[in-house]
Design brief:
Elements: E1 3-8, E2 12-18, E3 36-40, H1 42-52, E4 57-63, H2 67-78, E5 82-87, E6 94-99, E7 105-110, H3 125-129, E8 131-136, H4 146-149, E9 156-160, H5 172-177, E10 180-184, H6 192-202, E11 207-211, E12 217-221, E13 224-228, H7 243-256, H8 261-276, H9 288-294
Parallel strand pairs: 1-4, 1-8, 2-6, 4-5, 8-9, 9-10, 10-11
Antiparallel strand pairs: 2-3, 6-7, 11-12, 12-13
Helix pairs in contact: 1-7, 7-8
GO molecular function, one term: kinase activity
Keywords: Kinase, Transferase
Organism: Planobispora longispora
Length: 297
């Protein structure tokens, strides 16, 4: 196996704006601290997080021939992460993140989606055949990679549905085609268990992990539905951006090192807690040494 993790899609640039409160009341103008452009989006977070944990990573995506696309390419090249790029004529995906004093955020996401867009197979086909694991971001074109994972790769497959409400059709291919599914309970309300069971019953998922912020997470697998508490933050909260992607990276690190689900959850929670204490989305992912030092014996 050449790669531990191949990440499909999901890069972009986050423009972070620190605001005095959320939701932000209407006003014509707010004076804010310096507005910062940083590497962002979910595929970036999983790739950078797994790389920081010592896993061999390849990332493939479509990016624009624009300043944001050049910024994304340079960021991964500077960190020595193997990547394959193809052009996105409509430009690079972007988000504007409004971050409140307590670290909570509101994301304004510009997906730059183009109907009929496809990821060139030469960017990923050989890599997924020789990968241990493939993580598929929910960018629209990424769904078309799934047929190439069937019978052509021994890799396990995951996705993160983020704040899926259990009904939006965009997410269904990802939800029902992945063996390991992450999602947030944010939009589920009282339907959390129902949606988790639906994912497992109707699709290929063996494990469904639903994160719940400060309330920890819920895991549904062959052992049934279990709740795991959150991990205390190692320092003051700075920014919750990227915590979910960090959780995924830590969980995958545990899974790829043969750890049981309970330990994978704890590793993911530690990585996510670290992310909450670091400004920015994916600026300083936890290292393997720091993660294991904090992992209770």
């Amino acid at each position: 196996m050449t790669h531990d993790v191949v990440v499909i899609g999901g890069t972009g640039v986050d423009t972070t704006v620190y605001v005095p409160e959320l939701p932000l009341p209407y006003a014509d103008t707010y004076a804010v601290p310096p507005v910062i452009d940083r590497i962002g989006n979910t595929g970036s977070g999983v790739a950078l997080g797994c790389h920081a944990l010592g896993l061999r990573v390849r990332l493939v995506d479509l990016v624009g021939d624009d300043p944001q696309g050049r910024f994304v390419k340079a960021h991964f090249a500077e960190r020595g992460i193997e990547a394959g790029w193809a052009p996105a004529p409509q430009g690079t995906r972007r988000s504007v993140l409004l971050v409140g004093p307590d670290g909570r955020r509101t994301s304004l996401f510009d997906p730059r989606a183009e109907p009929g867009e496809r990821l060139p197979r030469e960017l990923y086909l050989d890599a997924v055949r020789r990968a241990r694991h493939v993580h598929v971001s929910i960018t629209d074109f990424s769904r078309h990679v799934y047929p190439d994972l069937e019978g052509r790769s021994a890799a396990t497959v995951s996705t993160d549905l983020h704040d899926w409400d259990g009904e939006n059709d965009h997410h269904r291919d990802f939800a029902y085609s992945s063996g390991l599914v992450f999602l947030s309970e944010t939009a589920l309300g009282g339907r959390r268990e129902k949606v988790m069971r639906d994912i497992r019953d109707r699709g290929r998922a063996e494990t469904v992990v639903c994160t719940a912020g400060a309330d920890g997470c819920h895991v549904l697998d062959a052992g049934g539905l279990r709740h795991f508490p959150a991990t205390p933050l190692p320092g003051p909260v700075a920014d919750s951006n990227g915590a979910g992607d960090a959780f995924v990276s830590g969980f995958l690190y545990g899974r790829l090192n043969g750890r049981p689900t309970e330990e994978c959850v704890r590793l993911g929670a530690l990585a996510g807690a670290h992310a909450c204490t670091v400004p920015g989305t994916h600026e300083d992912p936890i290292t393997e040494k720091a993660l294991l030092d904090r992992f209770p014996a």
